[in-house]
Amino acid sequence: MKFFIDSANVEEIQKAVDLGLADGVTTNPTLLAKEKGTPEEIYKAICQIVDGPVCAEAISLDADEIIAESMNLAKIHDNIVIKIPATKDGLMAVNTLEKEGIKTNVTLIFSAMQALAAAKAGASYICPFVGRLDDTGQNGMELVEQILQIYENYGFTTEIVVASIRSIGHVQTAALIGAHIATIPYAIIEKLIKHPLTDAGIQSFLKDWEKISK
Ligand code: G3P
To answer: Which of 30, 54, 186 maximizes ligand 1 atoms within 8 Å of its Cβ, making it the mutation to test the pocket?
Structure first.
């Protein structure tokens, strides 16, 4: 299973890289808006520290404009993958860009049929937003299970990037059902590592170490 970090913050990304837990990065306009610098400057900085896909979102809505914007973004670095929303124009752009050798990640996926259409259009990755589906009373991880089943039925190679992760439970379920990738906010990456029994165990071992004659 691959871990991407869902962040545009270079310090957080560096920490995830140092932990060996960043196989790639996803960004979006909301994450970029929290940082200083232009999107291009931020993508360049991220590409210098991460050896893997770095997803940069196209904000155009018309197919030709998405293609033009994506071509420019792709010039920034070989590892740039273009995030494109799951719309009709979006999929037209995905189809063209993938044929041109530019990798795409279809984002804002909320149904199995959007995921199937994205794979047929040739997307390298898709991002189902599990947390936002949970917010509506649906079960985001059930959608991921359905997409995995459909992709397996037909041998699609599109990789599922579980996105909008809000808890370590989301990551655990993604791992149990075999999702290819989870894109995880840094705060949740830290929570994954932590356990109160580990901390308590260290404290009691240190206490007992003091009793040993050295
Ligand atoms: O990768 C998508 C993610 O950034 C969206 O998360 O929490 O805004 O639904 P959230």
So the answer is: 30
Conformation bin of residue 161: beta by default, left when phi > 0, alpha when psi is -120 to 50: beta
Residue closest to 181 by CA, chosen among 116, 127, 103, 106: 127
From the CB of 183, is ligand 1 less than 6 Å away?
yes
Ordered domains of the chain (ranges, CATH): 2-213 (3.20.20.70)
Query: Which pTM value belongs to this model?
Result: 0.96
- Give the mean pLDDT of the chain: 98
Task: Decide: 161 and 141 in contact? Cβ < 8 Å.
Answer: no
- The per-residue b/e assignment along 101-116, b for 16 or more CB within 10 angstroms, e otherwise, is ebbbbbbbbbebebbb
131 Cβ neighbours under 8 A, 6+ residues apart: 140, 164, 165, 166, 170
According to DSSP, the residues that pair with 155 across neighbouring strands are none
Q: pLDDT of 141-152, one tens digit each?
A: 999 999 999 999
Give the pairing of strands 159-162 and 2-6. Answer: unpaired
Amino acid identity, position 132: R
